[in-house]
């Protein structure tokens, strides 16, 4: 268990640093208000987690430790959007459009609401 936690932690560190560097690099390169760095990281992270789970399921081409390092650690530090995208794909495959819509709409709407409420909390004190 400790080995798994260390692998996840190392992957998370590398994912977080990669997210920062890519975000900063793209922001400097394009000099735009559009969050191109975040969008790029979200798309790349979604692709990576798809590849990782595909290889893990296909004849165990990657070990459980490597899957934890890449999917949970690296992708988790790089972007949780990749997990969000993978969950949506699984819901669509397993449960159909209703649960996918509930998860997608609820996550986006409630996430936006939560950020807004978080920005307003200082007004209570």
TrEMBL record:
NCBIfam families: crcB (TIGR00494)
UniProt family annotation: Belongs to the fluoride channel Fluc/FEX (TC 1.A.43) family.
Reactions catalysed according to its record: fluoride(in) = fluoride(out)
Main subcellular location of this protein, as a coarse class: membrane
Function summary: Fluoride-specific ion channel. Important for reducing fluoride concentration in the cell, thus reducing its toxicity.
InterPro entries listed in its UniProt record: FluC
Keywords assigned by UniProt, alphabetized: Cell inner membrane, Cell membrane, Ion channel, Ion transport, Membrane, Metal-binding, Sodium, Transmembrane, Transmembrane helix, Transport
Keyword flag Chloroplast: no
Tagged with keyword Signal: no
Official protein name in the record: Fluoride-specific ion channel FluC
Transmembrane segments: 33-56, 68-86, 98-119
Domain of life: Bacteria
Organism: Marinifilum caeruleilacunae
């Amino acid at each position: 268990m400790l080995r798994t936690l260390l692998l996840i932690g190392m992957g998370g560190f590398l994912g977080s640093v990669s997210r920062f560097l890519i975000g900063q690099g793209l922001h400097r390169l394009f000099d735009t208000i559009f969050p191109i760095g975040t969008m790029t990281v979200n798309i790349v992270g979604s692709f990576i987690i798809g590849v990782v789970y595909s290889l893990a399921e296909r004849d165990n081409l990657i070990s459980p430790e490597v899957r934890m390092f890449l999917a949970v650690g690296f992708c988790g530090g790089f972007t949780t959007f990749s997990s969000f995208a993978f969950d949506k794909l699984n819901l669509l495959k397993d449960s159909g459009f209703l649960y996918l819509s509930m998860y997608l709409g609820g996550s986006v709407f409630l996430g936006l609401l939560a950020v807004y409420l978080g920005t307003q909390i200082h007004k209570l004190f």
